[in-house]
Amino acid sequence: MSEQELLNELEHVILMGHINEEDEGLDGTMQGTPGTEELVKKALEEGIDPEKLLKTFGKAMEKVGEKFESGEFFLPDMMASGECVGNAMEIVEPKLAAGTSYEKGKFLIATVQGDLHDIGKNIVATMIKGAGYHVKDLGIDVPADNILEAIKEYEPNFVGLSALLTTTMTEMEQVVKRIREEGYSDIKIFIGGVPTSQEFADKIGADHHCKDAMEALNKLEKVRDAS
Ligand code: B12
Is 62 in the same domain as 153? Predict the structure, then answer.
C-alpha cells in the first residue's frame, strides 16, 4: 500500500466509525479488517509524518460534518468517528511530543463551557506541545471560573479557547471579557473552532483567530518571536 493509499484508507475507516479490528463499523461488515488504530500504528511504523495523520483526521471529520449536515449521518455516527480520532490521537501524540524542551512558553487551552467538542482542540494542543511549548489542557465544557483559576495558578503566556457551536461563542466572549477584566492584558488569546473568525476575535477582544492547527502554530511562533 502506498502512503497515499494508506492515508485514504485511514480517512475511510474514520468515516465508517471503524475504531479497530474488533468492531464492525458503520455498515456492520468491517470486523476483522484493520481499523483506525491498526492503520495509524502501521502508518507510524512505516515512517509517515505524524502531521500528515493529523491532517487526515481533520479531513475525515470535515466530511463527517458534511454528512451530518446533509442528513446522511446521525449523532451516533458522528460519535463513532469522533471516538476513532480520539483513540488515534493517543497513539500519535507521543510521537509528536517526543524530544521537546518545553521552553518556548506556557499555553493554556480549553473548550468553553457548554461545548463538548475536543478533537480540534486536542490537535492544536498536540501540535503546540510538539513544537516545544508547555501545554496545560483543561479539557471540555470548562466554566469561565475554572479557566480564570487556572490562569492564576499556571501563569500562561498564551490562552487558547475552542468553540464549535454557535451557541457557545457567547461563552467564549464572556471568558475573554473576564480575562481582560481581571487585568491579564499581556496574555495573548488565541481562538478557534468552525463558527469563529478573525472578525469575531476582534469583536470580543481576543488576539488571534486560527482556522486550523497549522495556522495556530505559525501565528504562535510569530507572536513569540515578536515578544
Ligand atoms: C465530531 C463532532 C461531534 C462529536 C464531538 C466529539 C469530540 N470528542 O469532539 C459529538 C458527537 C459529541 C458532537 C456533538 C454535537 N454536535 Co458536533 N460536530 C462534530 C463534527 C462532525 C466534527 C468536529 C471536528 O472534530 N472537526 C475536526 C477538527 C480537526 O476540526 P475543528 O474542530 O474545526 O478544529 C480545527 C480548527 O477549528 C481549529 N481550532 C479548533 N479549536 C481551536 C482552538 C484554538 C485555541 C485554536 C487556535 C484553533 C482551534 O484548529 C483545529 C485543528 O485544525 C462537526 C462538523 C464540523 N464541520 O466541524 C460537528 C458540529 C460542530 N456539531 C454540531 C452539532 C449541532 C452538535 C450537537 C448539538 C448535536 C446534537 N444534536 O446533539 C452536539 C453538541 C454537543 C455539545 N454540547 O458540544 C454542528 C454545530 C452547528 C452550529 N452551528 O452550532 C456541527 C458544525 C455539525 C453540523 N454541520 O451541523 N459533535
Answer: no
Q: Which of 78, 164, 204 to mutate to test the pocket of ligand 1 (most atoms within 8 A of CB)?
A: 164
Q: How many of the other CB atoms lie within 10 Å of CB of 44?
A: 16
169 Cβ closer than 6 Å to some ligand 1 atom? no
Q: What does the chain come to in residues?
A: 227
Tell whether pTM > 0.70.
yes
What is the domain extent for residue 34? 3-97
Are 83 and 112 found together in one domain?
no
Distance CA 60, CA 42 (A): 18
Q: What is the CATH number of the domain that holds 72?
A: 1.10.1240.10
Query: What is the number of the ligand 1 atom nearest to the C-alpha of 54?
Result: 29
Please work out whether the CB of residue 195 comes within 6 Å of at least one atom of ligand 1.
yes
- Taking only the tens place, the pLDDT of each residue in 4-16 is 999 999 999 999 9
Whole-number Å distance between alpha carbons of 56 and 173:
30
Domain CATH for 164: 3.40.50.280
Could you read off the pLDDT of 25-57 as tens digits, one per residue? 999 999 999 999 999 999 999 999 998 998 899
